[in-house]
Design a protein that fits this description.
It contains ten helices and five strands; from the N terminus they run E-H-E-H-E-H-E-H-E-H-H-H-H-H-H. It has about 220 residues and is of the alpha/beta class. The protein has two domains: about 130 residues, Rossmann fold, CATH 3.40.50; about 60 residues. Helix 4 packs across helix 5. The longest helix is centred in the last third of the chain and has 16 residues. It is elongated, with a radius of gyration of 18 Å.
Length: about 220
């Protein structure tokens, strides 16, 4: 029996995560809220074989530390990361035994992004619902909008500059578009495109769960 602990709830709801990876005859899967400093020491007491880090706290409490993760790896636990805090830490520790998965991880690993602000969101502490939009999602959507000739590269740069300078709890598409110089017709087309676009952090979370399912 493989014991798996997954830290998430924000990038993907527990109910949806369990549709991909749940306990069965071969695996015991335990889902926990976004990780914070000290959680891994408690997790070790449960003797996990695999730990998957998707979501974690940034500013509400102390973030999970590098030494904590390395300590878990040294004890023989396989540690995987994606989507949010998991992607950030995996990009920093991928040469030391942590495995990263997905678009967000690759953005950090290649140096395309280098700040935890890119994945930070304001959340409802009770429901874990995101109350703002992560910059990494906006970058992904606006880049695709350029590829679809909905906006120009210059317009994308303007939108991202507005989003970047906005404090992360207040960052959202409506505020960003409102502060831009896009005309109303282009805004309407972009809003329609945004509504149809994938949530890349959620897609990465799904990819990680599938990856762990195949590895377990």
């Amino acid at each position: 029996m493989t014991k798996i602990i997954i830290y998430t709830g924000l990038s993907i709801p527990f109910s949806e995560a369990k549709e991909i990876l749940d306990s069965d005859d071969n695996n015991e899967v335990i889902y926990k809220r976004p990780i914070q400093r000290g959680d891994l020491n408690l997790a070790l007491k449960e003797n996990p074989d695999i730990i998957g880090i998707i979501d974690g706290v940034f500013h509400q409490n102390s973030a999970v530390g590098h030494k904590e993760i390395l300590n878990v790896i040294k004890k023989g636990v396989r540690v995987y990361g994606a989507s949010s805090m998991g992607a950030l830490r995996a990009s920093e520790l991928d040469t030391l035994g942590m495995t990263g998965v997905g678009y967000v991880y690759n953005q950090y690993a290649t140096g395309e992004v280098d700040s935890d602000d890119d994945v930070a969101v304001m959340l409802d502490s009770e429901t874990l619902e995101a109350l703002s939009e992560p910059l990494i999602n906006m970058k992904y959507v606006f880049t695709n909008a350029v590829d679809k000739n909905i906006i120009t590269e210059t317009e994308k740069d303007e939108l991202l500059a507005i989003a970047k300078k906005t404090f992360y709890p207040k960052r959202n598409y409506a505020q960003t578009l409102s502060a831009s110089n896009l005309d109303n017709d282009k805004k309407d087309k972009l809003i329609d495109f945004i509504r149809k676009s994938a949530d890349i952090k959620k897609e990465d979370a799904k990819e990680l769960l599938e990856y762990i399912k195949n590895e377990a």
